[in-house]
Write a structure and sequence with these properties.
With 311 residues, this protein is an alpha/beta fold. The protein contains 14 helices and 10 strands.
Length: 311
């Protein structure tokens, strides 16, 4: 069976994530231990006990979601020997996808995403940026209303996450995002949902973060991947070690082409897509894009057993 592995990004975190697989699988425990050593922080304690206020700080959230996703993956691999034909991750999740394809070790991935979180948080003072999800409008219409809102306010707002044909997230200065939300409702959007984020991710306002992150990425020992990784910036499959640092740096300021990534799964003859990590957001987005590909997820013992039965 041709299987894709999908990995969630920031926003999927919840206190307690990964705990039952940590308690049941030595391979999962080892991931938390390796990452804790690399981060000089007890990442298992943060994931399992929180508190929410600590877990939701961007510099903590990013390594916590990455480490939990890879711990869950190691448990799945141990039970099934699964070898995906392609991996993909949403925003932060792209780092998990690269680790899953054996192109970077967790000991390097965990510290770089912590830095990524710090740089992104520092790029724009808290409260000055915002994001919102526009539901029920085409990508082209959302891009146009962002241009209109930017012109009206003289501030930045752009389409940041092309999540599915029905959902596009926007990002930028808080004033411009608010204007774009109002425009979307007057133009017939089904729903507009402000996102609980601490910075305007995937917008030009993140340029300082990208500039700090790129030289750090270039220091890392990336390897060629054993299977293609779909990059957020172009929805194209990448396997060469040299391709990962520039794609990950650009990803900070450019939109997430998730709809394109999900359409690519069909071209790669994927039969089953397994979301590995806390929550099932990506499973839902895939169903909105392609209802033919079967879906499953792994976030706890119950979902792991169900997924094993499908493989």
């Amino acid at each position: 069976m041709r299987v894709a592995l999908l990995f969630p990004g920031q926003g999927a975190q919840k206190v307690g994530m990964g705990r039952d697989l940590y308690e049941n699988f030595a391979a999962a425990r080892l991931v938390y231990e390796e990452a804790s050593e690399a981060l000089k922080k007890n990442i298992a304690k943060l994931c399992f006990e929180g508190p929410d206020s600590d877990l939701n700080r961007t510099e903590n959230t990013q390594p916590a979601v990455l480490v939990t996703s890879i711990a869950l993956l190691r448990a799945l691999e141990g039970e099934t020997g699964i070898k995906p034909c392609v991996t993909a991750g949403h925003s932060l999740g792209e780092y998990s996808a690269i680790v899953a394809a054996s192109a970077l070790d967790i000991a390097f991935a965990a510290p770089i995403v912590k830095l990524r979180g710090q740089f992104m948080q520092e790029a724009v003072p808290e409260g000055e940026g915002a994001m919102a999800a526009i539901i029920g409008m085409s990508a082209g219409d959302v891009e146009k209303l962002c241009r209109d809102a930017a012109e009206r306010t003289g501030k930045v707002v752009v389409a940041a996450n092309f999540n599915s044909p029905e959902q596009v997230a926007i990002s930028g200065h808080a004033e411009a995002v608010a204007e774009a939300q109002e425009l979307a409702l007057t133009l017939g959007a089904k729903r507009v949902v402000p996102l609980k984020v601490s910075a305007p991710f995937h917008s030009p306002l993140m340029k300082p973060a990208a500039e700090k992150l790129e030289p750090e990425l270039n220091k890392l020992p990336f390897r060629d991947a054993f299977c293609p990784v779909l990059a957020n910036v172009d929805a194209e499959p990448h396997t060469k070690a040299a391709e990962f640092p520039p794609a990950l740096a650009k990803q900070v300021i450019e939109p997430v082409q998730w709809t394109g990534c999900m359409k690519r799964l069909r071209e790669l003859d994927v039969e089953l897509a397994v979301e590995v990590g806390p929550g099932k957001v990506l499973t839902g987005l895939l169903r909105n894009t392609d209802r033919e590909i079967k879906t499953a997820n792994v976030e706890d013992m119950q979902s792991l057993k169900k997924t094993i039965s499908l493989l």
